[in-house]
Structures are given as structure tokens and as C-alpha cells.
Amino acid sequence: MPMRQRIAATALSAVLAGGALGFAPAAQAHDIAPASCYGSANSYLKPAGTYWLPAGDVFSTSSACADINIKPNTNRYVKVCFETNGRLECQANYTLARAGQWNVIARNVRDGALFAFEFRSDAKSTGSWAA
């Protein structure tokens, strides 16, 4: 192999190896946070006839998660309402929470925030939530 091709091949190999190594720690750190958040997940049952989870109460966020997440067993449109000064202040729009996967409904939420889920449908819903 001529010298110019060897140098180019070596340089390309170094860039590829360096790029792979450069991304590995970030990917690992990203995988650790959701695992600890979802490891503290709670199952839920929202009965038919109500739009709220929990009905007549609120949940509290923890230090385990930075976001409020839901994993419904069927597709559901959901939004989060935060308790502020004794009232619930809701997000403007619903988010489609896809069945069988974690969906972020509210991002960067402080620890100890009081909240409830509001569903667009009053049909029964089951699944898990983590916050």
C-alpha cells in the first residue's frame, strides 16, 4: 500500500476509534439515569368514569426522576397538572402517551412537586408512572 494511502487509512481509523470512545461515556450515563428513575416506577389503575389520576388527590415527584413519565398499557392522551396555591394548573396540551413505552409528559420538574395526570378520556387505564 502506498504511503499516502497508509496515512489516510491510519487517520481514518483513529478518527473512528476516537469518535466511538468519545460517545461511549455519554451513552452509558444516559442509560443509567432512566434505569434508576423507572426502577422506582409505580403501577396505576385509573377507573372508568374519571379523567384524573389519582382521583381527588396528587402525587409527589422524587429525586429519582427529573421528569414526569407515564407508561400506559394502551395509547392515551395525557397532560400533567401541578398543584399551585391549592389549585391545579394544567399543561395547555395533551401528549400522546404510547402504549408499552415510557413517555415524558413534563420535563425538568423540581423534587417534591405535587401533580396529577389528566387524561383526555374517562375510559379505564392501567400502566406505570415514574416521577
Structural features:
131 residues; alpha+beta; Jelly Rolls; four-stranded antiparallel sheet; disordered N terminus; signal; Secreted protein
Extract low-pLDDT stretches. 1-32
Q: Could you say which structural class the secondary elements and strand pairing correspond to?
A: alpha+beta
The CATH class name of the domain at 40-130 reads Mainly Beta
- Give the proportion of residues in helices: 25-40%
Query: For the report, how would you describe the main beta sheet?
Result: 6 strands, antiparallel
Characterize the overall form: globular
CATH topology of the domain at 40-130, which one?
A: Jelly Rolls
The number of strands is: 10
DSSP strand content: 35-45%
First-residue to last-residue Cα separation: 58 Å
* C-alpha-based Rg, rounded: 22 Å
Tell me the layout of helices and strands.
Blueprint: H1 3-39, E1 42-46, E2 52-53, E3 59-60, E4 68-72, E5 76-84, E6 87-90, E7 95-97, E8 103-106, E9 114-119, E10 125-130
Antiparallel strand pairs: 1-10, 2-9, 3-9, 4-8, 4-10, 5-6, 5-7, 5-9
